Amino acid sequence: MSSSPVRIVEPKKEKKDKSHWLYISVIVAVLAGVILGLVAPDVAVKFELLGKLFVALIKMMIAPVIFCTIVLGIGSVRAAASVGRAGAISLVYFIVMSTFALAIGLVVGNIVKPGSSLAMPEAGSGMSFVDSSKEAAHGLSGFVMSVIPDTLFSSLTSGSVLQALFIALLCGFAIQSMGKAGEPLLSAIAQVQKLVFKVLMMVLWTAPIGAFGAISWVVGSTGFDAVKQLVLLMLCFYVTCVIFIFGVLGLVLYAFTRFNIFKLVKYLAREYLLIFATSSSESALPTLIRKMEHVGVDKSTVGIVVPTGYSFNLDGTAIYLTMASIFISDAMHKPLNLGEQIGLLVFMMIASKGAAGVSGAGLATLAGGLQAHRAELLDGVGIIAGIDRFMSEARALTNFAGNSVATLVVGVWTHTVDRNRVNAVLSGEIPYVETPEDMESDVNLRNPSVKNPADKLQPTPQVDVDEYQRT
């Protein structure tokens, strides 16, 4: 009797994206937590365990998320650098803008200090992460030794974020140095990354429970001040993102290309709507590529800048990571000193690559940064989880705006853009005609169940070198 291969039964009906129910559930959970904390504070503080459990689940995902995104992110960088001047210029631009966005988040966080007037009590669970981690080692030599794992695989199981980051960098560069022989390994890690992000999405479905527990605990312990400080953080973040898009990116676009940011935003209005509905900038990746080619940027440049930018140019995520970190440290009255903030900035710049792939990956990156530098602050991640969904749209929209501006800037620098056509398209003289592929990702505002086109892609996009060389 011959044995048949193992198969996974496909569902008869295609599954719809139900992430909007998660969004609604988080809203309900946060409101319920606030009400319980105000009405029955003594009862509310007893739900602290729910927040701890959610933080523990997020902590469980940190090492695999960082490992996969870094290994594949290095592949994206190496591919971009190997295809000539446009790739090298793109990488320099992305590094500068991502660092600038991180710095803006730190500056705004230190000036506004959201969370400074919030006396959030210690839950105690964060210190257990410190005590069990080699990252608590003192001195420079102790720190360096703590980064090196006992074995190659123990870096993914020891709970040390810096060890996972170190091994991910080594593996990423090692696989790239293997050339064609390393492609099967890279493909295998890409498949593992899909699995990791699928598990992460399952964990995020517990966010309403974790948010309810964390918000109930904080409001029950501190009163209505917690609500005001969380609202202040969200307002500061949204205002910072708006200023970054129309101020910083607008100035960069006009200074180097003389194109208008408002016209560009109007041209990509439909994509912004799609991103707002899915909370992921990758949902508009296919259409952005087509529209950038239509606007007058050479296909070869678009094929390099856009995929690389989606894994290496995450301005909104950078602002979110630094502002959330400052909020947590101030709320727990354990402020980060300048050296820790700079170290956190460098870590976030590396570890955030690829976080645009899945809505919620930024939360895991935030937890990773805190665990690597001040693990006792991990308790605060549960509080951020309560408002993370409210901030995800601004993150994704800012990421998208950064990549659209980068495509035009790099196109001008490499002389691969038709300026006259860009002006004509942005002025509406040459309208973009929607294709059948565009209609597949249409947004029906009456039915917010939107299928995310990014599901067809691997979470960390790669430059198609073969396609580039054919063009």
Question: Mind sketching the topology for me?
Answer:
Elements: H1 19-39, H2 41-44, H3 48-81, H4 85-112, H5 125-131, H6 139-147, H7 161-177, H8 183-204, H9 207-222, H10 225-257, H11 261-267, H12 269-278, H13 285-295, H14 299-312, H15 315-331, H16 338-351, H17 361-373, H18 381-413, H19 419-426, H20 436-439, H21 465-470
Walk me through what this model shows:
This protein is mostly helical. It has helices at 19-39, 41-44, 48-81, 85-112, 125-131, 139-147, 161-177, 183-204, 207-222, 225-257, 261-267, 269-278, 285-295, 299-312, 315-331, 338-351, 361-373, 381-413, 419-426, 436-439, 465-470. Helix 3 (48-81) runs antiparallel to helix 8, helix 3 runs antiparallel to helix 14 (299-312) and helix 16 packs antiparallel against helix 17 (361-373). It starts with 18 loop residues before the first helix and ends with a helix.
